[in-house]
Every structure is written in C-alpha cells, then in structure tokens.
Amino acid sequence: MSEQMDGASRASTNGNEPLLVVKNLKKYFPIKGGAILDRTVDYVRAVDDVSFTVRAGETLGLVGESGSGKTTTGYCVLQLLKPTEGSVRFAGKELTTMSRGDMRAVRRDMQIVFQDPYASLNPRMTVGDIVSEPLLVHKIGNRKSRRSSAERLLEVVGFNPDFINRYPHEFSGGQRQRIGIARALALNPSLIVCDEPVSALDISIQAQILNLLKDLQNEFGLAYLFVAHDLAVVRTMSDRIAVMNSGKIVEEGPAERVYTNPTDPYTQALLAAVPIPNPRRMQERRAERRKHKDVLAEPV
Questions:
Q1: Helix (H, G, I), strand (E, B) or coil at 224
Q2: CA-CA distances (angstroms) from residue 162 to 2, 117, 124, 212, 215?
Q3: Each residue of 60-76: pLDDT tens digit?
Q4: Parallel, antiparallel or unpaired: strands 59-63 and 240-245
Q5: How far apart (Å, rounded) are the C-alpha atoms in residues 4 and 214?
Q6: pTM
Q7: Number of DSSP helices (H) and strands (E) in the chain, helices first
Q8: Which residues fall within 8 angstroms of residue 129, CB to CB, at 6 or more apart?
C-alpha cells in the first residue's frame, strides 16, 4: 500500500470514547407555499432526534425503508448536509460548528462509498484520475506518486491496475464499485459511510463487494456506517444494527439479536418482507407481513 495506507489512522479518540458520536441529530427540509409570498408552511422531518455511536473498527448498520432518513443521516454525519440541530463528534471534534477549512482537513478521515456505481464516477475521467483525485485535492505527493498510489489501491480492491487508463463506461457495476471503494480508501480514512453500496448490483456481485469491504475493514481497521434497506445484508456486515422509521431510530442492538429477536413492530415487519428460498416459509412470511401492513410506511 501507499504511505497513506501503511500507518495508524490520523483520527484518535480519548480513552474509550467512540470514534463517532451523534446526539439528537435533526435535519428538517422546509416546505414552501403561498400564491404570492414564498413562505415556509411546514417541514419534512427527514431526521428527527437521532443518536448513535460508532467505535473504531466497528460497523453500525443503519437500516430502514426508502424515505426513512438513513441516507440523510449519513450525509449529515459527513456534513454534506448541514444538520438543523444536534451534535456530530468525530474523533473528539465537533463537526457541526467547524469552519470550512477545518472541515476540509477532517474529511481526510471520513469518506463515502455511494449507492450508484454508474452515477458516482465521472465518465470523463480515467480510472487512475478518479482514484487519485482525493490525493490531488489534498495536495499529497506528485503526479508520479499519485499514479503509483492509484495502482496499488486498485490492486487492494481486486481491480486490475492495467486498466488504469480506461474509462468507467468500459466496466460493469461491480467493477465500478471497486473503483469507488479504492477512491474512498485513498486518504486512509478511519470512517467510511457506505450508502447502500450493493443495492444496485446483482446478487453474486453483492457478495463479492461485501466480502471485499469486510476484508478491508480487517486489514485497515476501518469503521463503517453501513446504510441499507436489506436487513439480511446489514446482518452480514454489522456488529450492531439501528433501525430507522420516519426519521427516528426505533430499535438498536447487536446485529444477531435484532435480526433473530426484534422487539419493535416495525423491525418485525421489515424482517417479514425479507425473501427466503423456501416457498412454504415464504407463505408464512407473507401472512406475517399482512399482520404488519399498517406498520410499514409507503416509500417516498
């Protein structure tokens, strides 16, 4: 690996303090109305009083339906969206009150893998330029060293570095997601927000990407905030699971406990919707889901 990947993370915490601490996080989007005056008549409460922690090297799965607020929560953690209220502390530093310059430095330790491997890569940039772009933005190394780093990063994620001069449209969805993961690793982050990183991929490719993410976590001590709507995927990846519904966390606990013995009706309804390769058991699941039909909200 490059020099950005061979040392301990720059992010540090005091004692046993978690790497990421989110408290009472809120993100409201205004609803405008009025025939003449454009005024705020109400708010969409996308994230409404959410609190959780993520420790170094840990994976917290954030799961819920479309519109539950899980992706917005991830964006607020990274300060890609400014929270309406609440606290986001990363490595002991409060992010919500940081200046733009200070936040730029912190972004080296916080990265994201986007949901759509097709839209998240610039079609006019080569693979090498995409992967090395974070190094260029943060003024790390020269052109030769950045290219060398990009080649090594591509090897780490199982992508052929001989394709470094090719363009994203030449590759499959799984290959593009590997490029996105290599880009996220370029600055040696401590935390990666995985925003439904496998939902746009075929089942067989999903398994490859999930295994890759786990291997990288074990090798580099990464912490993940793993956002997904599929409880089965989240169970595979996570140490703990937090279930979101209508902007709130309704249940949180160890992954195996939440998956096998959920206590909240919404979590039970989500589990009832998970497909299983057993027709008889699937009929039983459908019956269970009908019991919970009033709990699951319509996607927005």
A1: strand
A2: 17, 20, 18, 20, 22
A3: 999 999 899 999 999 99
A4: parallel
A5: 20
A6: 0.86
A7: 10, 10
A8: none
